[in-house]
Write a sequence for this structure.
């Protein structure tokens, strides 16, 4: 006869398997939805290439957004977590868990903004970069936090240049992979910060974001990625 611990472990594995299946189904649905716009996307890419070739004169800025080059980030000066947060002027908080209940109904009772834990949708938001206006629902990305992801959020109205820098930060290699277990999105909950980094029960917020904030976000990422109740590759 199976022990109580073995029964709990079996139920946990069954739940994780259901989550993986639900996430794969959601991904397939997104890919089908995107497929209808494939020709438009190809046409847009061709148009961008033509514009870049036509305007590739000596006055182009290879480092700036839209200049045809990679967005430059401030070089890392500080690796220590506490030191980096202090130098950035950001505020770091650790909160008690608000629970891990799954519910398909919309939940709005989060005690932090952005949310750091609590009731969430059974299907997590996928890793990666979401364009402004296309952010996943809070109930979905809270589930993503439960899987050990780091979510970077920026306030609505953030400049394209700053967003491009945050994208470059997200794509820095971590554990040998670009964008490892990270999400970048526009905040949709009217958070009181210009930029925030969120992990399970952890929040690093910047009411005014400056270049030193990149080191703080790097240190936050390094310390808390994969530090959550469930590890999902």
């Amino acid at each position: 006869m199976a022990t109580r611990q073995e029964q709990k472990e079996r139920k946990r594995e069954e739940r994780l398997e259901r989550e993986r299946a639900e996430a794969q189904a959601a991904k397939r649905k997104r890919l089908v939805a995107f497929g209808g716009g494939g020709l438009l996307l190809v046409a847009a890419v061709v148009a961008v290439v033509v514009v870049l070739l036509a305007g590739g004169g000596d006055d182009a800025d290879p480092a700036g957004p839209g200049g045809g080059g990679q967005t430059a980030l401030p070089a890392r000066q500080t690796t220590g977590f506490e030191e980096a947060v202090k130098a950035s002027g950001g505020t770091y908080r650790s909160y008690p868990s608000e629970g891990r209940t799954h519910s398909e109904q919309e939940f709005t009772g989060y005690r932090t903004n952005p949310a750091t834990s609590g009731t969430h949708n059974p299907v997590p938001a996928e890793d990666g970069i979401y364009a402004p206006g296309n952010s996943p629902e809070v109930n979905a990305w809270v589930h993503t936090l439960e899987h050990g992801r780091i979510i970077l959020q920026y306030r609505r109205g953030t400049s394209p240049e700053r967003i491009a820098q945050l994208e470059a930060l997200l794509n820095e290699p971590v554990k040998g992979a670009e964008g490892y277990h990270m999400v970048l999105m526009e905040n949709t909950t009217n958070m009181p910060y210009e930029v925030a980094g969120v992990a399970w029960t952890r929040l690093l917020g910047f009411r005014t974001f400056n270049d030193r904030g990149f080191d703080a976000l790097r240190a936050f990422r390094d310390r808390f990625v994969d530090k959550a109740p469930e590890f999902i590759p």
